[in-house]
Amino acid sequence: MTHTQKSKAAAPAGTSDRAGSTREQSLPEYDQQLSGFHWSFEPELQAIVNGLPLRSNMRVLDLACGDGFYTRRLAERLGPGGSVTGADINRAYLSEARKEGSRKSGHAKIDFVAASFDRLPFPDNTFDLVWCAQSLYTLPDPVVAIGHMARVVRPGGLVAVLENDTLHQVCLPWPVYLELPLRAAELRSFIEGGRNSSKYYVGRRLPAVLAAAGLEPLRMTTHAFDRQAPLGQAEQGLLQRYLEKVVDRVTPHLEATLLQELRQLVDPGSPQHLLGQPHLTLTWLNVLAFGRKRPDGSRLPGGRG
To answer: How far is CA 227 from CA 237, 239, 280, 297, in A?
Structure first.
């Protein structure tokens, strides 16, 4: 049974079986949403990993590896002479990752270490490629984070980042008059929450962020994950949680009439429920960008990472 088949057969109410009571209780609050994203878009994410410029004997770092979803797929791309190290600050995630990784054979060696972005326990110039997926926006300064990645990648090696723009990652058929006030209310919630609002737009700025960290920006590509009704259980659960989070963000900042309409669109029991519409279409946008460390190991002028 493939991962995708398993998600349709065993994932209740849009969640993976890993989200049940057997999971460790110290996993981060975003775990259910992240694992739902992996379950829902596994074919597209696998295609992205398959397109990475990997060779069989490479040493790869999967930074902020979580439960090892990408770590295992990177190992499958490499031969027995290669190695993949998964690093994450959450030890419960690492426990899960080790269990899953131990079941793999015939692929690259897999190791997991507990580490934060700013305290990577690796010498300079250790890895051929550093991979980081959907983590930069959670950090105070994405440039500084990529600077730490640049330190541990070898001269001529690559940093590959998969990200979104938080405020524009999901294209849904919102009523035209609602969409712009909705986005403005989301942005206001980030600003008033004392957060660095620019990091929620990091996807579109990745080449500039890589350059600011001293890496040579290479190609950037946008990957659109398209879905239409009827949605699978995992997709339905992922998007319902996304919509409910949007409502939580904008409630203090959206005009009352618009907020009432938004709640009808998000309510599964409402005839207006957005995800229940028979001709629903949606697109989840992701950005993949590469930065290269100069062959002599130097940083680009002006790099501050």
So the answer is: 14, 11, 8, 43
